[in-house]
Automatic annotation (TrEMBL):
<keyword id="KW-0949">S-adenosyl-L-methionine</keyword>
<dbReference type="GO" id="GO:0015667">
    <property type="term" value="F:site-specific DNA-methyltransferase (cytosine-N4-specific) activity"/>
</dbReference>
<comment type="similarity">
    <text>Belongs to the N(4)/N(6)-methyltransferase family. N(4) subfamily.</text>
</comment>
<dbReference type="InterPro" id="IPR017985">
    <property type="entry name" value="MeTrfase_CN4_CS"/>
</dbReference>
<dbReference type="GO" id="GO:0032259">
    <property type="term" value="P:methylation"/>
</dbReference>
<dbReference type="GO" id="GO:0009307">
    <property type="term" value="P:DNA restriction-modification system"/>
</dbReference>
<protein>
    <recommendedName>
        <fullName>site-specific DNA-methyltransferase (cytosine-N(4)-specific)</fullName>
        <ecNumber>2.1.1.113</ecNumber>
    </recommendedName>
</protein>
<keyword id="KW-0808">Transferase</keyword>
<dbReference type="InterPro" id="IPR029063">
    <property type="entry name" value="SAM-dependent_MTases_sf"/>
</dbReference>
<keyword id="KW-0489">Methyltransferase</keyword>
<keyword id="KW-0614">Plasmid</keyword>
<dbReference type="GO" id="GO:0003677">
    <property type="term" value="F:DNA binding"/>
</dbReference>
<keyword id="KW-0680">Restriction system</keyword>
Length: 428
């Protein structure tokens, strides 16, 4: 494998290029980019300016179609729509699908949204607060203890009922509530994992939601209506051939999960439960089984993705090193025992994804995958970008290069970890 390593061009000479310090600022939404993108966004989502860089480098034109197979909250497809480029997104997480579809829907009338929100807020504010409402036991079991205090939960449930009573409820109203939940109503902290902070006795539920609706309405007034087609599939990225039209994709810009022991479904658990996407443990398990494995919490007995990298010596060596260190340290908990297999499942899942994607790609399609190196809890370094490039090459892709996007500081060790953009080309 011959990989050309390059730096993110516009960042040469900055702290990024020195690789001596972390640089989280490169992952933040900048200035006017907040329009639409900030309606609801994962804390670990990549920034719009990164998408622009590769749209320009790949010479993507308005008559092209760009795919994001791990679309999350829609950064790629929204940025494409802003440039009158057709976008297709796909994600297995239903709350992410809601976000992507809503953020690429600019047809809603801003004045109508404000009027409906005012009417809903009035109804919700009239509800009784003498007996506090709670989640069902099954739903409550899915949410971290203390994630939301009793009174804010009661107010949120009342507001949600009032929203759903509105005829033909625009999804923008639900997305505004999802953002309010994680940004101001709940007790959740994101740093960058999900933790529970100090309990709030109360929270401005209706006010926070109204502020978000008003932001959405104001942004819609700024966006020029266009006829660009944007589609978001609720699908597993490892079986994209089931939903994509053969030979339809000119470029791919995406960021799959990293093999970082993060259960990505936890980052959206509270809003997924309150909005009714997850009602019990079976729902949560079903969701996890459609996600690319990035955590030992997502390993299930019937998983077979690891078989896809059984012949990859590098993945097998890493897994063996992790397992050997586990045994040397005498760790016997389930988390430790499953981590080596989780790594194999991750890279096997990525190989399945890359193979499933091939029929949809046009000859000469360009692809950009944003991935990050990891050092597991046993300090076994995983060079994610290099391994992904190797796997892609084994599937017939050409490696066009690897760009350094940024470095970030590992929480436990303080070491600088690379986040890279693996560049591929498809020529069958």
């Amino acid at each position: 494998m011959d990989v050309q390593l390059s730096f993110f061009p516009e960042l040469e000479g900055t702290r990024l290029a020195t690789r001596h310090a972390g640089n989280p600022e490169h992952n933040r939404v900048q200035g006017a980019d907040a329009i639409v993108h900030d309606w609801y966004r994962f804390i670990l989502a990549y920034p719009p300016h990164l998408v622009r860089t590769y749209l320009e480098r790949f010479a993507v034109m308005p008559d092209h179609t760009v795919l994001d197979p791990f679309s999350g909250t829609g950064t790629t497809i929204v940025e494409c729509k802003k440039r009158s480029i057709s976008g297709i997104g796909s994600d297995a997480n239903p709350i992410a699908v809601l976000a992507s579809r809503t953020k690429s829907d600019w047809i809603a009338n801003p004045d109508s949204l404000r009027l409906r929100a005012s009417r809903i807020a009035e109804r919700a504010g009239e509800t009784d607060q003498s007996i506090l409402r709670t989640l069902t036991p099954d739903a409550e079991a899915l949410v971290s203890r203390g994630a939301i205090s009793p009174l804010p939960l009661h107010k949120t449930l009342n507001l949600l009922d009032a929203i759903r009573e509105e005829p033909n409820t625009p999804p923008h109203l639900l997305l505004a509530l999802a953002k309010a939940l994680v940004s101001s109503i709940s007790n959740l902290w994101f740093a960058p994992g999900v933790t529970v902070g100090p309990a709030k006795a109360d929270a401005p539920v209706i006010e926070s939601w109204l502020n978000n609706v008003n932001t959405i309405a104001a942004d819609l007034e700024l966006m020029q209506p266009n006829t660009v087609t944007t589609t978001v599939h609720h699908a597993d990225a490892r079986t994209l051939c089931d939903v994509l039209t053969p030979g339809s994709i000119d470029a791919v810009i995406t960021s799959p999960p990293y093999p970082n022991e993060s259960d990505y479904s936890r980052a959206t658990r509270l809003e997924s439960v309150l909005l009714g996407y997850l009602n019990n443990r079976l729902d949560a398990q079903t969701l996890k089984q459609t996600l690319l494995c990035s955590s030992s919490r997502n390993v299930y007995q019937g998983d077979t993705d690891d078989a896809w990298v059984a012949g990859n010596d590098r993945v097998q060596r890493i897994a063996s090193e992790i397992e050997q260190k586990r045994q040397d340290l005498g760790k016997t908990d389930g988390f430790s025992r499953l981590y080596a297999r989780a790594v194999k499942l991750y890279f096997g899942g990525m190989r399945r994804h890359l193979r499933s994607l091939k029929p949809a790609l046009k000859d000469g399609a360009s692809l950009a995958y944003v991935v990050g190196d990891q050092a597991s809890f046993l300090q076994v370094h995983i060079h994610t970008g290099e391994i992904l490039a190797e796997i892609a090459e084994s599937e017939g892709y050409t490696i066009a290069g690897v760009d350094l996007f940024r470095t970030r500081q590992a929480t436990k060790t303080g070491k600088q970890m690379r986040e890279e953009v693996v560049l591929l080309r498809w020529t069958p």
